[in-house]
Amino acid sequence: xxxxxxxxxxxxxxxxxxxxxxxxxxxxxxxxxxxxxxxxxxxxxxxxxxxxxxxxxxxxxxxxxxxxx
Length: 69
Known about the structure:
Blueprint: E1 7-18, E2 22-29, E3 32-39, H1 40-46, E4 53-59, E5 62-66
């Protein structure tokens, strides 16, 4: 993964809650949980599921989620 953001927090997905168009993804990062709101389409494209390793990528006030290919 190559990304310009400096704040990448690797952790484990503990919960994915899908809404009508947006999902909340909770990632445990060393005992702290970071929550990101992302589109349902992004959840599907990243194949996010409980127990998977993922990154909380923080840029300004937004949190994005990234995974290794």
